[in-house]
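Board work, copied verbatim: Dual specificity protein phosphatase
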Amino acid sequence: MNPQENAPATGRQLSDVLSSVRSSYSKPLPGYEGQIMSRYQVGVCMDEVYPSIYIGDLGAAKNRDYLKHVGITHVLNTAQGDKMATVNTNADFYKSYGIKYLGLELLDFPSANIAKYFEESANFIDEALKNGGKVLVHCFMGISRSATISTAFLMIKRGMTAKEALIQIKQNRNVFPNEGFLRQLADLDNTLAKQRSHKA
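↓ predict structure ↓
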């Protein structure tokens, strides 16, 4: 076995992995399986990327009736705010629908420190799944911030490497975190690999 295969990845290697994985573009919209209903008709774009974890965009986040319809119990907004390319929701927005909420004030810049939210977000998602819930993790377009946070969850709570987690997600949704976020995932990969080696 090549020891390099299990070595922590670099940000560049993660970018190459994402470029090599083909996404499934013909998946039906959750809740409309078997029906001829496009994402554009419903105004929602979200995909199940791992059992009970969905990545979506602004349209998905704002459509509370749809979220209730498909059984979403938790929403993690990785783009909370009122600046450009953010989504101005909060806990009160979902309260009457019984949906739990966590908001992260993050801009989609390579220099943004998304890593500081990895543990808190992973715990939020994990708690939801342990209680049989379904989680929407979203940002403005559902491509970078939400994908990064979802990847970190799979690494921290499901024991995946960064490559494995990104492949899992990219196969189900066409995501592409920015280069700074990929570097932070590579750093997390290295940290988790060291922790695993110490336990072995």
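Residues 179-199 form the longest helix (21 residues).
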